[in-house]
Design goal:
Length: 300
């Protein structure tokens, strides 16, 4: 049986990935400190280790005998990283180094790293393509980009196969709807269910390439299966962008506008490389993904 580790497997994307890997017959070990994830989201068939990836000596033995590592654990969100740069650097940079080193020492076949489209920052042209220079606008964007660089170095120096997947605004089941850093679709759905106004940061004209977690899960599995390594970077985005105002209108309800904050105005993925090399084809349209979430959450 193929053995894998999913760091951050109690979180939003990690728990969805864990479910799919178990459905495919893998032995899945989840590493999560539950700072952002939830114990109840961990598939009961997974082997759960409540650990922090920044504790290298504690996690190192768990990598022995593991075939593949999916590294999703992070302290996410741009605004959170602006307020807490030290904590997010420890989790996102040091934690990634720990995972790569433990994987190298254990002879893991490949590490699939969850990177972020926030590495691009603001770019003068759309869509965003992997050959563009990174211009992160936040500690989070920089930290996730440093993780990519570490993956490349570990492939070049230590011959550890790595792949980096730059996610674009992932949404879907298990997404976080709590607190000031909630994902926008989750926040809107929670507000709609509570009969509250949908709060938009800024004027709502900013656009995002919303990508279903179901498609992101498939991208991870394809990155594991395909003959790609060397820290190769792939955009994992639907290739369609919508304004935040349009998303609010899709969900429905009265809108309230709040002051703008520091973030890229637009994102749109050129996913040609992922389509051609990984054979990845995003299947879930935003309209259908929101309809699925409305049904799950009982939002009318």
């Amino acid at each position: 049986m193929t053995k894998v580790i999913v760091t951050g497997g109690a979180g939003f994307i990690g728990s969805n990935l864990t479910d799919e890997l178990i459905a495919k017959g893998f032995e899945v070990h989840v590493l999560d400190n539950l700072s952002g994830g939830k114990r109840e989201q961990v598939n009961p068939q997974a082997i759960f280790h409540e650990m922090d990836i920044t504790d290298y000596e504690a996690i190192k033995p768990l990598f022995v005998g593991i075939d593949y590592v999916f590294h999703l654990a992070a302290l996410p969100r741009v605004q959170f990283s602006i307020e807490y740069p030290l904590a997010t650097n420890e989790a996102n940079v040091v934690g990634t180094l720990d995972v790569l080193l433990a994987s190298k020492e254990a002879g893991v076949k490949k590490v699939i790293y969850s990177a972020s489209s926030s590495a691009y920052g603001d770019q003068p042209v759309m869509p965003l393509v992997e050959t563009m220079s990174a211009h992160p606008k936040s500690p989070y964007g920089l930290q996730k980009y440093i993780g990519e660089m570490y993956c490349r170095v570990f492939s070049q120096v230590y011959n550890l196969p790595t792949v980096c997947l730059r996610y674009f605004n992932v949404y879907g089941p298990h997404q976080n709807d709590e607190g000031a850093y909630a994902l926008v679709i989750a926040k809107f759905l929670k507000q709609k269910k509570a009969g509250e106004k949908l709060t938009i940061i800024g004027d709502g004209s900013q656009t995002r390439d919303f990508t279903s977690v179901h498609d992101v899960v498939q991208a991870n599995i394809l990155a594991m299966e395909k003959e790609v390594s060397g820290g190769e970077v792939f955009n994992i985005g639907a290739g369609r962008n919508f304004s935040i105002k349009t998303v609010a209108e899709l969900i429905g309800g009265e809108i309230e506008y709040l002051p703008a904050r520091l973030e890229p105005h637009d994102t749109l993925a050129d996913n040609t490389k992922a389509r051609e090399i990984l054979s990845w084809i995003p299947a879930v349209k935003l309209e259908d993904g929101i309809a699925e979430l409305k049904e799950i959450l009982g939002v009318k």
